[in-house]
Amino acid sequence: DAKTTQPNSMESNEEEPVHLPCNHSTISGTDYIHWYRQLPSQGPEYVIHGLTSNVNNRMASLAIAEDRKSSTLILHRATLRDAAVYYCILRANSGYALNFGKGTSLLVTP
Amino acid sequence: EAGVAQSPRYKIIEKRQSVAFWCNPISGHATLYWYQQILGQGPKLLIQFQNNGVVDDSQLPKDRFSAERLKGVDSTLKIQPAKLEDSAVYLCASSLVQGRTGELFFGEGSRLTVL
């Protein structure tokens, strides 16, 4: 499986934008880029996914590099409730399981 | 819509004892997953079911772990005998394979402590 690389941790101030990077230099042409997050003491939850074009939803935006070797999850205004571990995952198709790495632990301070 | 239900939420046992975890997926979801999450790590897939058939159990320690999904709905994960290194959160997830995103919906997990 193609692997992803994320920083272990990041810190942000409340109400400021957060850019969470993910490197995936060995991504294949059919891999989708998925982001999940895991709040403390909860199971992971879906955030967003994309293939080539940038994507927006009510939770976040996903910016994908033109060569697809990296992507960035953007939280437009961080809140204290956004403090979580964020996982960037490559997935060939919707029939496959998700293979999680260690993710990025996001700390949001007031 | 009801989410993925798991029980028990917490379980403490001594090594060499047995334990079972139960999962009820979201209604209509054909695919069910069991993950193991050790403290400080991301979840690791143990087994994936499609209806009541096994799709992937390559990372399931079959000498002590077993899982079944009778009638393609509920699932049970069993550990017998437990070891200290089995202390972890066991997460169940389900998905609509044919859905737009194939999004996985996770339960809150069952935390196991082996003493």
Give a quick account of the main beta sheet of chain B: strands, pairing sense, barrel closure.
7 strands, mixed
**SS content category of chain B:** mainly beta
Average pLDDT number of chain B = 94
Query: How far is the first residue's CA from the last residue's CA of chain A?
Result: 38 Å
Largest contact between chains: A-B, 21 and 28 residues
Q: What kind of oligomer do you see?
A: heterodimer
Uncertain segments of chain A are none
Q: Let me know the average pLDDT of chain A.
A: 94
Main sheet: strand order of chain A: 1-9-8-3-4
How many helices of chain B does DSSP assign? 0
Task: Walk me through what this model shows.
The complex is a heterodimer of chains A (110) and B (115). Chain A is 0% helix and 45% strand. Chain A contains no helices and nine strands. A five-stranded mixed beta sheet of chain A has the order 1-9-8-3-4, with no helix packed on it. Chain A is globular, with a radius of gyration of 13 Å. The model of chain A has no long low-confidence stretch (mean pLDDT 94). By secondary structure, chain B is mainly beta. Helix content of chain B is 0%, strand content 48%. Chain B is built from no helices and eleven strands. In chain B, a hairpin with a 6-residue loop joins strand 7 and strand 8 (75-79). The model of chain B has no long low-confidence stretch (mean pLDDT 94). At the A-B interface, strand 4 and strand 8 of A face strand 4, strand 5, strand 9 and strand 10 of B.
